[in-house]
Design goal:
The structure is a homodimer. Chain A is mostly helical. Chain A is about 65% helix and about 5% strand. Chain A has a three-stranded mixed sheet, with helices on both faces. In chain A, strand 2 and strand 3 form a beta hairpin. In chain A, helix 2 runs antiparallel to helix 5. At the A-B interface, helix 1, helix 2 and strand 1 of A face helix 1, helix 2 and strand 1 of B.
């Protein structure tokens, strides 16, 4: 393992990796198992580990080695990527005072629990002081990192997706808006699709059984991973041999469990596919948030909502739920899981409206960082924007401003990656169809062949390559959202006859 | 929290605590959830964290602070205990080369998985090379730590129980042997107790339900703890607000689940009871292994196998298993769960034979460390000793030499604490009966009152006091195994009429 790293640099990276792994496991445990009374004390540990991490990354001798690695033009691709990524990390952390970083991380560790409770109890006021503190820290840290003239929110965005500044995103979202909003109007005017049968009573244990089966069908390697439950589905990993994901089970919404599972499996396959040589190093993860999301969205929507995918699988589902689905044809099922319908919850959104949910968040984050809008005003702003773009207004904060965990995590600037990833997934599909008989493979249940292609062409080199370069090599052009709007127009024209 | 620690020392201790907590969680996860293919990669992380721990404990400025703390006669009890315990740890670690310690911990991390597989497949040969390596490291480390003239196995013993050298233990075990072996012979000659009904088919899920209920009945705080499953039941904790235990469920042995659960609850209550002020510090755990085991054995045997305990609880059990226990009276049940019967498995052993299992291990460990017996010979020696003391011989290594995880963990010298703890539990009972109407409280289901007494008198000060001092303060004398042999003789005379 890690043959590409020099003996001088390895001990530092092993230490950084060990701390990161410990932090990841604690977070996983917090979300999936930890006793509810533990948070405050465990948060102390998380704060200390975050500071340890910062200290480890900023060891002067290590910094020197990394800057040499970055500058060395004779280095391998993996070496240079390691230098590049760590230099970025170092440059960020060296500007943040260690005590403040420790405090910030302690607050984050507590905020996750506070948010969860506030959401359950529809109590924004309980979460607001934490949100305010987190925003304050993020702004302060962003100001410390900003290059001359760089805007604060651009600093936040750069953390997740290099090159996608507000300027780029404004025009990206403008294009989406221009295409999606009129399409949604046409869809809403057309006869609606029946999906009542998805709200019958579906036993949770049986949903779980089906989902565990489905993950393996998608080629998830259960010897190197786990599937548990959490309120908000997510994927994480300790290394490429330990990739963990969650879904959730609602009795009256089996599609929520199934599509969350397929989505997370997209993330999980990516992580399981990264070379053994790279795992447990700084380049042993996905290339970027957008690239990661392209995989989850590709599996969830482009494969997972296609008729070809369900043709060999639907029988298994109806056998699991004969009473609930015995009278539903495959065609009816496919139409139901693809229906477009403005809703309040991002994670439950359909393909057509999903990016509008992201737009709301993107615009609010811009306001937070660039217009200093106050935490108090956010619920109202949120509701107004939902009304404007989606035509519906949340009745309470739990289904409004409190729905996502991201801000409790301090992840401002993350949301746009969901939309970018969604657009990239269509670009990938466009290329894949040239190389592989995708529909035929789906109909034959040969998900392993699609997976092998993804692994070979996109996954295995982890973060050694930049997302832009991966796309260039993969399909001969950089990011192009045109494929996505085309895909949507074609798909929904077919579904709704518009 | 931790007001008793100076600001100078806190950052060091927070760091040490964070690393220790991370290591604990990884071990917990390995035993209860981690994917089976993850071990090798996760072991890298464990090795690095162990070395980080060693490095943190040996920071020269920290060592200086600790030695000042230890020497300061004006310090509080908690401060001096912190100094004493850490000085012991430092003195141990500073003699071990860091690379060797890291390698050793990496081997341990792998060995746990290898042992588990070897036990399952009855394949001692697969585990033997690891065992050999572990013994080699332990001997080497013990030799580095030994004071002049100190024997290697005494070094190992001191790690777990100060003052209990081979000399002390030899006479302790001789006393047990002298009393127990003839008592066991008499019991075996008497009419045997029927326990066939305990081998009927008991649904695992229902066992689980009952066990979770029972833990709360015993006053375990589920908001500050967890109960999962593992092959080998154990208890661990991240801090006093996160105490985790496991049990196991066998369809044909509900008593195994129940008494493992009660045993582990004894450990768990101890950890939950430690003062908030002390948790997450070096004195925030149990006073010693023997003291810890006294709590688990007290709950498991002295309370848990008594008629007074089951009087209010047995109804709940028969309601859970009406078909299996409907025809069994409380009296029959009590006799069955107290039957003495030489068996091969320590963790399933009854009260009378338990310490003989420990004697076997103690004597073998002595041979390993003092007579250089080879790893190859161990299965035979094990079987011979079982034949000698218990009159039965294991038919395979899974139920012989491979049954315990301890050696895979490098925990040589740990076993005697089980016997010491068992003896201490009887000594505690002797005193408690003077202070509390124990039987009446049990019959009224007032486990919280017994628990409150334990917390107040034995638990809350953690490792601030030494085990010997705790006993002195508690009952006015030091360790005295006489109470235990008396207890056994009285109990089994009653049960078997011998």
């Amino acid at each position: 393992m890690q043959e590409f790293l020099s003996d001088a640099i390895k001990p530092y990276l092993n230490r950084i990796n060990a701390i990161r792994t410990a932090m990841t496991l604690i977070e996983w445990d917090n979300e999936t198992g930890a006793p509810k009374g533990a948070a405050e004390y465990t948060a102390n540990v998380q704060g200390v580990l975050a500071a340890e991490y910062q200290r480890a990354v900023l060891e002067p001798d290590f910094v020197k080695l990394i800057r040499q690695l970055k500058a060395d033009e004779n280095g391998t691709e993996a070496q240079r990527a390691t230098g590049r990524l760590l230099d970025k990390e170092i440059s960020k952390l060296e500007k943040i005072p260690i005590e403040e970083y420790e405090n910030y991380n302690r607050i984050l560790a507590q905020a996750a629990g506070v948010w969860q409770k506030a959401k359950k109890e529809n109590d924004y006021a309980a979460f607001a002081p934490y949100l305010e503190l987190i925003i304050e820290y993020c702004k302060k840290f962003a100001a410390l990192q900003a290059k001359e003239g760089q805007k604060l929110y651009d600093v936040m965005l750069e953390e997740f997706e290099e090159g996608f500044t507000m300027e780029v995103l404004d025009s990206f979202f403008a294009e989406l808006k221009e295409k999606i909003v009129p399409l949604l109007k046409k869809v809403q005017a057309a006869p609606q699709i029946d999906a009542d049968f998805l709200h019958r009573k579906y036993d949770r244990e049986k949903q779980k059984e089906f989902c565990l089966w489905l993950a393996e069908y998608l080629d998830f390697d259960s010897d190197r991973g786990l599937i548990l439950e959490s309120e908000h589905p997510f994927t994480t990993n300790l290394h490429n041999h330990d990739v963990r994901m969650t879904t959730h089970y609602y009795e009256d919404a089996p599609d929520s469990a199934v599509f969350s599972l397929i989505h997370e499996t997209g993330h999980a396959l990516y992580e399981q596919d990264i070379d053994d040589e790279l795992t447990q190093t700084p380049v042993g993860g996905g290339s970027s948030m957008g690239m990661h999301e392209s995989q989850s969205r590709f599996y969830e929507n482009i494969l997972g909502r296609s008729e070809a995918f369900w043709e060999p699988v639907y029988k298994k589902l109806t056998e699991t739920f004969p009473q609930q689905l015995g009278d539903v044809t495959l065609r009816q099922f496919i139409r139901a899981i693809n229906r477009a319908e403005p809703g309040l919850i991002r994670t439950e959104a359909d393909e057509l409206t999903y990016c509008l949910h992201i737009m709301v968040r993107y615009e609010i984050e811009k306001m937070i960082f660039e217009e200093n809008v106050s935490v108090k005003e956010l619920p109202e702003i949120w509701a107004d924007k939902y009304e404007e773009y989606l035509g519906i207004r949340p009745e309470n904060d739990a289904e409004g401003i409190l729905q996502d965990i991201h801000w409790a995590n301090g992840s401002f600037g993350y949301f746009p990656s969901y939309a970018l990833g969604t657009a990239i997934s269509a670009q990938i599909y466009h290329q894949m169809k040239k190389d592989l008989p995708v529909d035929a493979l789906l109909r034959e249940g040969k998900l392993d062949q699609i997976h092998a292609y993804m692994k070979e062409r996109l996954h295995h080199f982890g973060a050694v390559k930049k997302t832009g370069d991966i796309l260039e090599e993969f399909c001969g052009e950089g990011f192009n959202p045109g494929y996505y709007t085309e895909y949507l127009e074609e798909k929904f024209a077919g579904l709704y006859g518009v």
